[in-house]
Design goal:
Two copies of one chain form a homodimer. By secondary structure, chain A is of the alpha+beta class. Chain A has 17 helices and 23 strands. Chain A has an eight-stranded mixed β-sheet with strand order 6-9-10-22-21-20-17-11, sandwiched between helices. Chain A has a five-stranded mixed β-barrel with strand order 1-2-3-5-4. Chain A has a five-stranded antiparallel β-sheet with strand order 12-13-16-14-15. Chains A, B: It comes from Thermocrinis minervae. Chains A, B: GO terms for molecular function: aspartate-tRNA ligase activity; aspartate-tRNA(Asn) ligase activity; ATP binding; nucleic acid binding. Chains A, B: Homodimer.
Chain lengths: ~600, ~600
Amino acid sequence: MLKEFKRTVYCGHISEEHLGKKVVLNGWVHRVRNHGGVVFIDLRDREGIVQVVVEEQKNPEAYEIADRLRSEYVIGVVGTVRRRPPGTENPNLKTGYYEVEAEKIAVFNTSDVLPFPVDEETPVSEEVKLRYRYLDLRRESMKENLLFRHKVYQRVRRFFDEKGFIEIETPFLTKSTPEGARDFIVPSRLHPGKFYALPQSPQLFKQILMVAGFDRYFQIVKCLRDEDLRADRQPEFTQIDFEMSFVEEEDVMQVVEELVCDLFENLLGIKLKRPFDRLSYEEAMEKYGSDKPDRRFDLNLVELSDIFKNTEFKVFRSVLEDGGVIKAINFKSSDLTRSQIDELVNYVQTLGAKGLAWIKVEADRLNSPIVKFFSQQEIEGLRQRLNLEPKDVVFFSAGKREEVYRILGNLRLHIAKKYNLINNSGFDVFWVVDFPLLEWDEEEKRFVSVHHPFTAPKEGHEELIDKALKEENLDEKKRIISQIRSRAYDLVINGYEIGGGSIRIHSLELQDKIFKLLGISELEAQEKFGFLLNALRYGAPPHGGFAFGLDRLVALMRGLDSIRDVIAFPKTQKGICLLTGAPDYVSPKQLKEVHIKVLE
Amino acid sequence: MLKEFKRTVYCGHISEEHLGKKVVLNGWVHRVRNHGGVVFIDLRDREGIVQVVVEEQKNPEAYEIADRLRSEYVIGVVGTVRRRPPGTENPNLKTGYYEVEAEKIAVFNTSDVLPFPVDEETPVSEEVKLRYRYLDLRRESMKENLLFRHKVYQRVRRFFDEKGFIEIETPFLTKSTPEGARDFIVPSRLHPGKFYALPQSPQLFKQILMVAGFDRYFQIVKCLRDEDLRADRQPEFTQIDFEMSFVEEEDVMQVVEELVCDLFENLLGIKLKRPFDRLSYEEAMEKYGSDKPDRRFDLNLVELSDIFKNTEFKVFRSVLEDGGVIKAINFKSSDLTRSQIDELVNYVQTLGAKGLAWIKVEADRLNSPIVKFFSQQEIEGLRQRLNLEPKDVVFFSAGKREEVYRILGNLRLHIAKKYNLINNSGFDVFWVVDFPLLEWDEEEKRFVSVHHPFTAPKEGHEELIDKALKEENLDEKKRIISQIRSRAYDLVINGYEIGGGSIRIHSLELQDKIFKLLGISELEAQEKFGFLLNALRYGAPPHGGFAFGLDRLVALMRGLDSIRDVIAFPKTQKGICLLTGAPDYVSPKQLKEVHIKVLE
């Protein structure tokens, strides 16, 4: 039956060239209405919508079928393309100047009434959308998102292929990878009590591939992390992953810049300027209180410690005496009301800050609960340093440096979103470099890698590592280690860390030292990544690489806030797939087969 | 330090154009030897090997370093390309007419003595190879295999992209897919007692994508099945997966043929003739005793039941009375010895056959334990039907039809391999079609899908389905169901099922009927694939698709027997990754977090 109704052209492609020609369309009834003896069908397929007209007089048989059509019925239409009568054109529609006069219609399938219409207007809850994802995906915007994502895949792979990178698949049933997050584990049936881990990234495998001599590897690959799902995190996400041998930072960063420019130019028509801006980690923290700052608005952090070095104000003084810092941001000419200020005070309290000192500059005075404690000199210092003008509102944070960064960095973002300070036109693309290699983890009471344990330290910093290893005194050790910088580089776009990478350690000796600094015993290291350590014994080349978060990159390029809109079948914040109902209970037989039982 | 040693050309690319030019090489010391004051280094990288010469006289510094080099050291070389002295050329090497005179050498990394040399000659056990996969992958042949696989990926995706297919990722943490095999399950941390299943295939999701209106989908995707690993099966394997809407068998099969021809022509330079041969399931079983026959040799099954319809030979008679069949294969002019025959008898016993009747044709007589039971007429019949000639050896199988297929089908393959009957030149590519929709499962005592429950029955066979549903008598029901054919099609190359597909069911009513025939209750159906059933209510288009086994396809194209040779990090038959040691034990904390304990 399909034969004579085999599509000859997509609805969305009907154009001048088809005028007067017979066509066969396949698609969904988007809308249908009967104007006394004439049925008008908006027929929809992947490529768009075209109007189909069925006249009772001319085609009684087709008319009879058309008259019984309902929304989302699946039909085939044989008809002839003609120009719409003057005055009935629809300039908003790509095919709006044409219509197809139907001679034959076949109904391939019917449809129940949809839980929500296929349009962009009707507000539908996220939950319902995800439960009926196949209907949500019929919407123009969702289709465009996934079509765009398809184009990204193809360009990315062509880019790497042309540059001599080899696509190699890495395993899914593997061993814990040390990305810091929790592993998803998979019980083994053949090996009672043992488990596979799903890969958090192909990190170790791509390094192994460099040791194997593949020189340039890439892969677009799913990664899985059992993390506490913050807003807009997915337990499974897609990574553009690559690695190169015999390279330094500049070589890898150049490949990244070329790829990003290729994508933006060819998929968005936007020429990004190269080389990308570079920000040191320190500069980023000092100015924005974040290592992935959103630079599309001001409200920068300003250092004030020097101004208060002799202050009488107890709070500030004790902070400085404890080696802390005092910083502030000036919300210029915002003229915030007291209640607006209070809202911001409450916000920082949710971040765990005791309070938030503030000054509102008024024509005649500084309105503030704390200025009374400041000396004239200090106030003068503030006026100049912060360039105070009427209607400015200044917020202070005093405490440990990292704390001040965290509080003001978050406050800065909070204000920018709340008061629409962000310039959404265009993209701010830049590098953050010179990260610390290690940082002290207060909870674990040990040093941890800022990136991962295979990240190489800056050349020349090996001495610091040796010194730190010898140092007994913890504070002194911290001081030394804080000076060690890594060969890592993160790419930031509009305040999102879109990817990161580093030059890796290829010397077994150096790798051992790093594990020592991390307090990882040789036994533990052997157990966890012995295979990499062994590989380093047999001629490992210098190498480095990078990994992009593809979901976020695509969302950013499409101007979308949520990565769910660029993932065909996303999960909720609780990790549930509302379409399939996963995760779900399994049979006792299944559990027994893999030698586990569920804890009561 | 790398700077001045940054590669300018791959070792394997040194050619006429570089003569007299300064080059920088990075690579591994493949071989090194010192001939009195001159060190010769075979330097290897991804692209090949070139000879590097270091002369003590000319470059004492470089010489001193070169003299201390050992196999698999990683080095950089600055030198000048020159022609090898006459008589010292190596025509077996792409670069064999040139050598690089080294001026500077840098050692990037050293290497312990390898557990086995990087060459094709040295025999190394599979186990050692897999444990040191990074060394095994340095071998020319393995590199070529993965490079070839890389090319397959790129061509496949370009092919689908150009045909308007959209690449869409389907989830890994999902719900059980009904492919018949066991699921790998993943305990959920956020949902105690619940589990995700890893996908056995994207089957349901790609059908959902058709309901969503994407019209043409494709993906190269990992699939995971916890099967009892037969030789050369992997728990995770890669599939080339696609689906199309508004199509019939011919449309899908055409896409498959075009893709296969594209790959063979562009990657192997082989033009396959189209359309591919087609074999009905029945024909395949009758002639070869297999639904994925190897047709590269004869030894076909010959039907003999009619010849023995009135036989006095009890064994045969009782078989025929029980509705069984008698078939034989004739190993022409093999002149097998008695002990060779006995080996084959033993083989079929391993298949569970009681015995194997045979006849050896000798110049003057038929040497056989059973001919004495045959009538002259029956012997005459055999002579003609099997075209008996001296030195022929005939093997009989009598029993249930399926049993005879299984026994002789396997014996046929066994003989072919043992006696090298297989013509290994070229590829035998063909379709098997007209499969039964369902078959009776003796163990489960119910009907099961030959492919999967979403496979559509042949048009016109709906009546048979209704009849079968009404039929009370099981034997009669079996008879009716055995007549129902499906709209499935398998692609076979050189005796391997390289892929399969079908037109799917898009009618909810029909899908319900199939579940009934399969003895799947509505409740169970709702639980397992309710989301697909619901999707069928809302305008599901006619659709169908196909999936290739990429690993096997690549292995076949490379002329390899084992798919392990085309997988970068394969697992053993017991599902172990010898490189990483996965699966492995996990911490009690990890188990507790996902609310499970291991059974003692």
